[in-house]
Design a protein that fits this description.
Length: 427
Protein backbone atom coordinates (compact mmCIF):
# COMPACT_ATOMS: atom_id res chain seq x y z
CA UNK A 1 0.00 0.00 0.00
CA UNK A 2 1.42 3.44 -0.90
CA UNK A 3 2.80 5.55 1.90
CA UNK A 4 2.49 9.31 2.21
CA UNK A 5 5.96 9.72 3.60
CA UNK A 6 7.51 8.13 0.52
CA UNK A 7 5.52 10.40 -1.82
CA UNK A 8 4.71 7.42 -3.99
CA UNK A 9 1.77 8.28 -6.22
CA UNK A 10 -1.37 6.46 -5.25
CA UNK A 11 -3.08 4.26 -7.77
CA UNK A 12 -6.62 5.29 -8.53
CA UNK A 13 -7.72 2.79 -11.08
CA UNK A 14 -11.30 3.35 -10.08
CA UNK A 15 -11.01 7.03 -10.99
CA UNK A 16 -10.23 7.35 -14.69
CA UNK A 17 -10.00 10.83 -16.05
CA UNK A 18 -13.11 11.48 -18.12
CA UNK A 19 -15.12 14.36 -19.51
CA UNK A 20 -17.65 14.69 -16.65
CA UNK A 21 -14.81 15.03 -14.13
CA UNK A 22 -13.07 17.64 -16.27
CA UNK A 23 -16.34 19.56 -16.60
CA UNK A 24 -16.83 19.40 -12.82
CA UNK A 25 -13.30 20.69 -12.19
CA UNK A 26 -13.90 23.50 -14.66
CA UNK A 27 -17.04 24.52 -12.80
CA UNK A 28 -15.33 24.41 -9.42
CA UNK A 29 -12.57 26.64 -10.82
CA UNK A 30 -15.16 29.08 -12.15
CA UNK A 31 -17.26 29.12 -8.98
CA UNK A 32 -14.23 29.79 -6.76
CA UNK A 33 -13.01 32.48 -9.17
CA UNK A 34 -16.40 34.22 -9.19
CA UNK A 35 -16.69 33.97 -5.41
CA UNK A 36 -13.25 35.51 -4.93
CA UNK A 37 -14.14 38.22 -7.43
CA UNK A 38 -17.33 38.91 -5.49
CA UNK A 39 -15.45 39.29 -2.22
CA UNK A 40 -12.58 41.18 -3.84
CA UNK A 41 -14.88 43.71 -5.49
CA UNK A 42 -16.17 45.01 -2.14
CA UNK A 43 -12.75 45.24 -0.44
CA UNK A 44 -11.92 48.79 -1.67
CA UNK A 45 -15.39 50.21 -0.92
CA UNK A 46 -16.57 48.52 2.28
CA UNK A 47 -14.62 50.92 4.58
CA UNK A 48 -15.99 53.90 2.64
CA UNK A 49 -19.56 52.63 2.95
CA UNK A 50 -19.01 52.17 6.68
CA UNK A 51 -17.67 55.72 6.81
CA UNK A 52 -20.79 57.05 5.08
CA UNK A 53 -23.14 55.18 7.40
CA UNK A 54 -21.48 56.47 10.59
CA UNK A 55 -21.31 60.10 9.49
CA UNK A 56 -17.89 60.51 7.89
CA UNK A 57 -15.41 59.82 10.71
CA UNK A 58 -12.35 58.02 9.32
CA UNK A 59 -11.19 56.94 12.78
CA UNK A 60 -14.54 55.36 13.67
CA UNK A 61 -14.73 53.81 10.20
CA UNK A 62 -11.34 52.14 10.73
CA UNK A 63 -12.49 50.83 14.11
CA UNK A 64 -15.72 49.40 12.71
CA UNK A 65 -13.93 47.91 9.70
CA UNK A 66 -11.72 46.00 12.13
CA UNK A 67 -14.79 44.84 14.03
CA UNK A 68 -16.35 43.64 10.78
CA UNK A 69 -13.22 41.65 9.87
CA UNK A 70 -12.99 40.01 13.28
CA UNK A 71 -16.70 39.18 13.30
CA UNK A 72 -16.50 37.64 9.81
CA UNK A 73 -13.59 35.41 10.86
CA UNK A 74 -15.32 34.38 14.11
CA UNK A 75 -18.49 33.36 12.28
CA UNK A 76 -16.50 31.34 9.76
CA UNK A 77 -14.69 29.65 12.63
CA UNK A 78 -18.02 28.43 14.02
CA UNK A 79 -19.91 27.73 10.79
CA UNK A 80 -17.29 26.10 8.54
CA UNK A 81 -17.39 22.70 10.32
CA UNK A 82 -21.20 22.76 10.07
CA UNK A 83 -21.04 23.39 6.35
CA UNK A 84 -18.47 20.64 5.88
CA UNK A 85 -20.55 18.12 7.82
CA UNK A 86 -23.65 19.07 5.83
CA UNK A 87 -21.80 18.42 2.58
CA UNK A 88 -20.68 14.99 3.87
CA UNK A 89 -24.29 14.11 4.69
CA UNK A 90 -26.25 15.67 1.82
CA UNK A 91 -23.63 16.10 -0.90
CA UNK A 92 -21.41 18.93 -2.15
CA UNK A 93 -23.77 20.30 -4.81
CA UNK A 94 -26.57 21.62 -2.54
CA UNK A 95 -24.11 23.24 -0.13
CA UNK A 96 -22.22 25.02 -2.93
CA UNK A 97 -25.44 26.15 -4.63
CA UNK A 98 -27.02 27.42 -1.41
CA UNK A 99 -23.78 29.23 -0.63
CA UNK A 100 -23.83 31.03 -3.97
CA UNK A 101 -27.51 31.89 -3.60
CA UNK A 102 -27.03 33.12 -0.03
CA UNK A 103 -24.07 35.30 -0.97
CA UNK A 104 -25.97 36.84 -3.87
CA UNK A 105 -28.92 37.77 -1.68
CA UNK A 106 -26.58 38.98 1.06
CA UNK A 107 -24.59 41.29 -1.21
CA UNK A 108 -27.89 42.81 -2.35
CA UNK A 109 -28.86 43.40 1.28
CA UNK A 110 -25.53 45.10 1.89
CA UNK A 111 -26.02 47.25 -1.21
CA UNK A 112 -29.36 48.44 0.18
CA UNK A 113 -28.25 48.75 3.83
CA UNK A 114 -29.59 52.04 5.24
CA UNK A 115 -27.78 51.71 8.58
CA UNK A 116 -24.57 50.29 9.98
CA UNK A 117 -26.57 47.64 11.84
CA UNK A 118 -28.08 46.26 8.62
CA UNK A 119 -24.65 46.25 7.00
CA UNK A 120 -23.29 44.40 10.03
CA UNK A 121 -26.03 41.76 9.74
CA UNK A 122 -25.33 41.41 6.03
CA UNK A 123 -21.62 40.88 6.66
CA UNK A 124 -22.46 38.29 9.32
CA UNK A 125 -24.70 36.37 6.92
CA UNK A 126 -21.96 36.40 4.28
CA UNK A 127 -19.65 34.77 6.82
CA UNK A 128 -22.24 32.05 7.42
CA UNK A 129 -22.94 31.38 3.74
CA UNK A 130 -19.39 31.50 2.34
CA UNK A 131 -19.16 27.71 2.27
CA UNK A 132 -18.09 27.28 -1.32
CA UNK A 133 -14.35 27.59 -0.60
CA UNK A 134 -14.06 24.67 1.80
CA UNK A 135 -16.70 22.61 0.00
CA UNK A 136 -14.87 23.17 -3.29
CA UNK A 137 -11.76 21.57 -1.76
CA UNK A 138 -13.85 18.57 -0.67
CA UNK A 139 -15.28 18.40 -4.19
CA UNK A 140 -11.75 18.27 -5.62
CA UNK A 141 -10.92 15.37 -3.30
CA UNK A 142 -14.07 13.55 -4.47
CA UNK A 143 -13.40 13.72 -8.20
CA UNK A 144 -9.60 13.81 -8.53
CA UNK A 145 -7.16 10.88 -8.28
CA UNK A 146 -4.73 11.27 -5.39
CA UNK A 147 -1.70 11.64 -7.61
CA UNK A 148 -3.35 14.59 -9.41
CA UNK A 149 -4.84 16.41 -6.45
CA UNK A 150 -1.93 18.78 -5.90
CA UNK A 151 -2.33 20.06 -9.46
CA UNK A 152 -6.10 20.44 -9.01
CA UNK A 153 -5.66 22.31 -5.73
CA UNK A 154 -3.08 24.45 -7.50
CA UNK A 155 -5.73 25.48 -10.03
CA UNK A 156 -7.97 26.57 -7.18
CA UNK A 157 -5.04 28.58 -5.82
CA UNK A 158 -4.71 30.21 -9.23
CA UNK A 159 -8.39 31.15 -9.08
CA UNK A 160 -7.73 32.86 -5.76
CA UNK A 161 -4.77 34.74 -7.26
CA UNK A 162 -6.72 35.91 -10.30
CA UNK A 163 -9.70 36.91 -8.19
CA UNK A 164 -7.61 38.98 -5.80
CA UNK A 165 -5.95 40.79 -8.70
CA UNK A 166 -9.07 41.55 -10.74
CA UNK A 167 -11.60 41.91 -7.90
CA UNK A 168 -10.14 44.86 -5.97
CA UNK A 169 -9.16 46.62 -9.19
CA UNK A 170 -12.70 46.27 -10.54
CA UNK A 171 -14.13 47.25 -7.18
CA UNK A 172 -12.03 50.38 -7.08
CA UNK A 173 -13.18 51.36 -10.57
CA UNK A 174 -16.84 50.71 -9.80
CA UNK A 175 -16.56 52.44 -6.43
CA UNK A 176 -15.40 55.57 -8.23
CA UNK A 177 -18.76 55.62 -9.97
CA UNK A 178 -20.90 54.86 -6.90
CA UNK A 179 -20.00 53.46 -3.49
CA UNK A 180 -22.75 50.84 -3.53
CA UNK A 181 -22.29 49.76 -7.15
CA UNK A 182 -19.62 47.10 -6.36
CA UNK A 183 -22.07 45.39 -3.97
CA UNK A 184 -24.67 45.13 -6.75
CA UNK A 185 -22.06 43.70 -9.14
CA UNK A 186 -20.94 41.21 -6.48
CA UNK A 187 -24.59 40.18 -5.97
CA UNK A 188 -25.02 39.71 -9.70
CA UNK A 189 -21.88 37.58 -9.96
CA UNK A 190 -22.94 35.32 -7.09
CA UNK A 191 -26.48 34.85 -8.41
CA UNK A 192 -25.10 34.15 -11.89
CA UNK A 193 -22.82 31.57 -10.29
CA UNK A 194 -25.86 29.97 -8.64
CA UNK A 195 -27.75 29.74 -11.95
CA UNK A 196 -24.69 28.41 -13.74
CA UNK A 197 -24.16 25.74 -11.10
CA UNK A 198 -27.83 24.80 -11.06
CA UNK A 199 -27.52 23.90 -14.73
CA UNK A 200 -23.97 22.53 -14.90
CA UNK A 201 -22.64 21.27 -11.57
CA UNK A 202 -22.90 17.49 -11.02
CA UNK A 203 -22.87 15.93 -7.57
CA UNK A 204 -19.44 14.58 -6.65
CA UNK A 205 -20.29 12.48 -3.57
CA UNK A 206 -22.54 9.48 -4.33
CA UNK A 207 -25.07 8.45 -1.66
CA UNK A 208 -23.17 5.29 -0.71
CA UNK A 209 -20.12 7.37 0.28
CA UNK A 210 -21.97 9.94 2.40
CA UNK A 211 -22.16 10.10 6.17
CA UNK A 212 -25.01 8.10 7.65
CA UNK A 213 -26.26 11.09 9.63
CA UNK A 214 -25.59 14.72 10.48
CA UNK A 215 -24.18 15.00 14.01
CA UNK A 216 -23.93 18.39 15.73
CA UNK A 217 -21.43 16.81 18.10
CA UNK A 218 -18.97 16.69 15.20
CA UNK A 219 -20.21 19.77 13.32
CA UNK A 220 -18.51 22.33 15.54
CA UNK A 221 -14.93 23.58 15.88
CA UNK A 222 -14.11 21.27 18.79
CA UNK A 223 -15.63 18.24 17.07
CA UNK A 224 -13.74 19.11 13.89
CA UNK A 225 -10.46 19.19 15.80
CA UNK A 226 -11.28 15.79 17.26
CA UNK A 227 -11.50 14.48 13.70
CA UNK A 228 -7.98 15.78 13.05
CA UNK A 229 -6.68 14.00 16.15
CA UNK A 230 -7.66 10.66 14.62
CA UNK A 231 -5.12 11.25 11.85
CA UNK A 232 -1.78 12.33 13.39
CA UNK A 233 -0.25 13.33 10.06
CA UNK A 234 -3.30 15.40 9.19
CA UNK A 235 -3.18 17.05 12.62
CA UNK A 236 0.43 18.06 12.05
CA UNK A 237 -0.33 19.52 8.63
CA UNK A 238 -3.39 21.29 10.03
CA UNK A 239 -1.03 23.01 12.49
CA UNK A 240 1.09 24.02 9.49
CA UNK A 241 -1.97 25.47 7.74
CA UNK A 242 -2.86 27.47 10.84
CA UNK A 243 0.66 28.90 11.23
CA UNK A 244 0.92 29.69 7.52
CA UNK A 245 -2.43 31.44 7.45
CA UNK A 246 -1.55 33.37 10.58
CA UNK A 247 1.74 34.47 9.00
CA UNK A 248 -0.07 35.45 5.80
CA UNK A 249 -2.12 38.04 7.68
CA UNK A 250 1.00 40.21 7.90
CA UNK A 251 0.47 40.99 4.20
CA UNK A 252 -3.20 41.82 4.58
CA UNK A 253 -2.86 43.88 7.75
CA UNK A 254 0.45 45.77 7.47
CA UNK A 255 1.42 45.76 3.77
CA UNK A 256 -0.09 49.17 3.02
CA UNK A 257 1.05 50.77 6.28
CA UNK A 258 4.56 49.34 6.07
CA UNK A 259 5.26 50.31 2.45
CA UNK A 260 3.88 53.81 3.03
CA UNK A 261 5.96 54.31 6.18
CA UNK A 262 9.21 52.85 4.91
CA UNK A 263 9.18 53.56 1.16
CA UNK A 264 6.61 56.34 0.80
CA UNK A 265 4.40 54.34 -1.53
CA UNK A 266 0.97 55.74 -2.29
CA UNK A 267 -2.23 53.88 -3.23
CA UNK A 268 -1.23 53.56 -6.89
CA UNK A 269 2.13 51.95 -6.14
CA UNK A 270 0.52 49.61 -3.61
CA UNK A 271 -2.17 48.64 -6.11
CA UNK A 272 0.39 47.79 -8.79
CA UNK A 273 2.47 45.83 -6.29
CA UNK A 274 -0.50 43.79 -5.07
CA UNK A 275 -1.45 43.07 -8.67
CA UNK A 276 2.09 41.80 -9.25
CA UNK A 277 1.81 39.58 -6.16
CA UNK A 278 -1.45 38.11 -7.44
CA UNK A 279 -0.05 37.59 -10.93
CA UNK A 280 3.06 35.80 -9.69
CA UNK A 281 0.99 33.65 -7.33
CA UNK A 282 -1.34 32.64 -10.14
CA UNK A 283 1.60 31.59 -12.31
CA UNK A 284 3.05 29.47 -9.50
CA UNK A 285 -0.24 27.80 -8.61
CA UNK A 286 -1.39 27.10 -12.17
CA UNK A 287 1.94 26.47 -13.85
CA UNK A 288 4.52 25.14 -11.42
CA UNK A 289 2.65 22.92 -8.96
CA UNK A 290 1.49 20.47 -11.62
CA UNK A 291 5.03 20.22 -13.00
CA UNK A 292 7.00 19.96 -9.78
CA UNK A 293 4.88 17.57 -7.70
CA UNK A 294 5.05 14.62 -10.15
CA UNK A 295 8.83 15.07 -10.35
CA UNK A 296 9.76 15.78 -6.72
CA UNK A 297 6.77 14.55 -4.72
CA UNK A 298 4.34 16.28 -2.39
CA UNK A 299 6.67 16.38 0.61
CA UNK A 300 9.63 18.05 -1.09
CA UNK A 301 7.49 20.63 -2.87
CA UNK A 302 5.64 21.42 0.35
CA UNK A 303 8.84 21.98 2.31
CA UNK A 304 10.40 24.00 -0.50
CA UNK A 305 7.33 26.26 -0.59
CA UNK A 306 7.64 26.89 3.13
CA UNK A 307 11.33 27.72 2.79
CA UNK A 308 10.60 30.21 0.00
CA UNK A 309 7.93 31.82 2.17
CA UNK A 310 10.35 32.23 5.07
CA UNK A 311 12.95 33.83 2.79
CA UNK A 312 10.38 36.15 1.21
CA UNK A 313 8.95 37.40 4.50
CA UNK A 314 12.39 37.89 6.00
CA UNK A 315 13.54 39.85 2.95
CA UNK A 316 10.45 42.08 3.10
CA UNK A 317 11.09 42.79 6.76
CA UNK A 318 14.75 43.64 6.21
CA UNK A 319 14.51 45.40 2.84
CA UNK A 320 15.95 48.91 3.11
CA UNK A 321 14.64 49.99 -0.29
CA UNK A 322 11.51 49.53 -2.36
CA UNK A 323 13.47 47.69 -5.03
CA UNK A 324 14.69 45.10 -2.55
CA UNK A 325 11.15 44.74 -1.23
CA UNK A 326 9.93 44.02 -4.78
CA UNK A 327 12.62 41.36 -5.13
CA UNK A 328 10.88 39.41 -2.37
CA UNK A 329 7.62 39.10 -4.33
CA UNK A 330 8.71 36.05 -6.40
CA UNK A 331 9.73 34.32 -3.17
CA UNK A 332 6.33 35.08 -1.63
CA UNK A 333 4.67 33.71 -4.75
CA UNK A 334 6.72 30.50 -4.49
CA UNK A 335 5.39 30.16 -0.95
CA UNK A 336 2.22 29.08 -2.74
CA UNK A 337 3.90 25.82 -3.71
CA UNK A 338 3.22 24.46 -0.22
CA UNK A 339 -0.58 24.74 -0.18
CA UNK A 340 -1.65 22.23 -2.87
CA UNK A 341 0.66 19.40 -1.68
CA UNK A 342 -0.54 19.99 1.88
CA UNK A 343 -4.14 19.55 0.77
CA UNK A 344 -3.22 16.54 -1.36
CA UNK A 345 -1.57 14.75 1.56
CA UNK A 346 -4.36 15.53 4.01
CA UNK A 347 -7.18 14.47 1.70
CA UNK A 348 -5.32 11.23 0.98
CA UNK A 349 -5.50 10.32 4.67
CA UNK A 350 -9.22 10.91 5.23
CA UNK A 351 -12.16 8.75 4.13
CA UNK A 352 -14.49 10.09 1.39
CA UNK A 353 -17.42 10.59 3.77
CA UNK A 354 -15.27 12.84 5.99
CA UNK A 355 -13.73 15.11 3.36
CA UNK A 356 -16.26 17.85 4.07
CA UNK A 357 -15.55 17.72 7.80
CA UNK A 358 -11.83 17.87 7.06
CA UNK A 359 -12.20 20.97 4.92
CA UNK A 360 -14.56 22.51 7.45
CA UNK A 361 -11.96 21.95 10.17
CA UNK A 362 -9.20 23.49 8.04
CA UNK A 363 -11.35 26.51 7.17
CA UNK A 364 -12.25 26.87 10.84
CA UNK A 365 -8.55 26.96 11.76
CA UNK A 366 -7.78 29.56 9.10
CA UNK A 367 -10.73 31.65 10.30
CA UNK A 368 -9.44 31.39 13.86
CA UNK A 369 -6.13 32.83 12.72
CA UNK A 370 -8.07 35.73 11.22
CA UNK A 371 -9.67 36.57 14.55
CA UNK A 372 -6.45 37.84 16.09
CA UNK A 373 -3.87 37.78 13.26
CA UNK A 374 -4.48 41.33 11.92
CA UNK A 375 -4.34 42.94 15.37
CA UNK A 376 -1.22 40.94 16.25
CA UNK A 377 0.81 42.21 13.30
CA UNK A 378 -0.47 45.79 13.35
CA UNK A 379 0.35 45.97 17.07
CA UNK A 380 3.88 44.68 16.47
CA UNK A 381 4.34 47.14 13.60
CA UNK A 382 3.16 50.04 15.75
CA UNK A 383 5.30 48.98 18.72
CA UNK A 384 8.54 48.95 16.71
CA UNK A 385 8.05 52.33 15.01
CA UNK A 386 6.77 54.25 18.04
CA UNK A 387 8.73 56.87 19.94
CA UNK A 388 9.11 54.55 22.91
CA UNK A 389 10.41 51.66 20.86
CA UNK A 390 13.71 50.41 22.25
CA UNK A 391 14.58 49.12 18.78
CA UNK A 392 13.38 50.89 15.65
CA UNK A 393 12.50 47.97 13.39
CA UNK A 394 9.68 48.72 10.92
CA UNK A 395 9.85 45.20 9.47
CA UNK A 396 9.37 43.47 12.84
CA UNK A 397 5.90 42.20 11.87
CA UNK A 398 7.31 40.50 8.76
CA UNK A 399 10.14 38.97 10.76
CA UNK A 400 7.60 37.63 13.28
CA UNK A 401 5.66 36.08 10.40
CA UNK A 402 8.86 34.48 9.11
CA UNK A 403 9.53 33.04 12.58
CA UNK A 404 6.03 31.51 12.62
CA UNK A 405 6.80 29.97 9.25
CA UNK A 406 10.00 28.45 10.60
CA UNK A 407 7.93 26.69 13.27
CA UNK A 408 5.56 25.56 10.54
CA UNK A 409 8.44 24.18 8.50
CA UNK A 410 9.64 22.09 11.44
CA UNK A 411 6.11 20.80 12.08
CA UNK A 412 5.63 19.93 8.40
CA UNK A 413 8.96 18.14 8.21
CA UNK A 414 8.09 15.95 11.20
CA UNK A 415 4.52 15.31 10.10
CA UNK A 416 5.42 14.19 6.59
CA UNK A 417 8.15 11.82 7.79
CA UNK A 418 5.52 9.54 9.29
CA UNK A 419 4.83 6.49 7.23
CA UNK A 420 1.10 6.06 7.32
CA UNK A 421 -1.12 4.37 4.76
CA UNK A 422 -3.50 6.43 2.76
CA UNK A 423 -7.17 5.92 3.67
CA UNK A 424 -8.14 2.61 2.19
CA UNK A 425 -11.61 3.63 1.11
CA UNK A 426 -11.99 4.26 -2.58
CA UNK A 427 -12.30 7.85 -3.60
Amino acid sequence: MPMIGSDAPAADADQPAHAPRRAALAFIFVTVLIDILSFGIIIPVLPHLVQQLIGGSIGRAALWSGVFSTMFAAIQFVCSPIQGALSDRYGRRPVILLSNLGLGVDFAVMALAPTLGVLFVGRAISGMTSASFSTANAYIADVTPRDRRAQAFGLLGAAFGIGFVVGPALGGFLGGIATRLPFWVAAGLSLTNFCYGLLVLPESLPPQKRSARFDFGHANPLGALLLLRRYPQVLGLAALVFLSQLAHYVLQSTFVLYTDYRYGWGPQAVGYTLALVGLCSGVVQAGLVGRLVPRFGNRRVLLAGQAFGIAGLALMGLAGSGGLFLAAIPLIALWGLSGPPTQAIMTGQVDPHEQGRLQGAITSLTAFSGIFGPSLFTSVFAAFIGRDAGLHLPGAAFLLAAALMVVGLVVADRATRRRQPIAAAAD
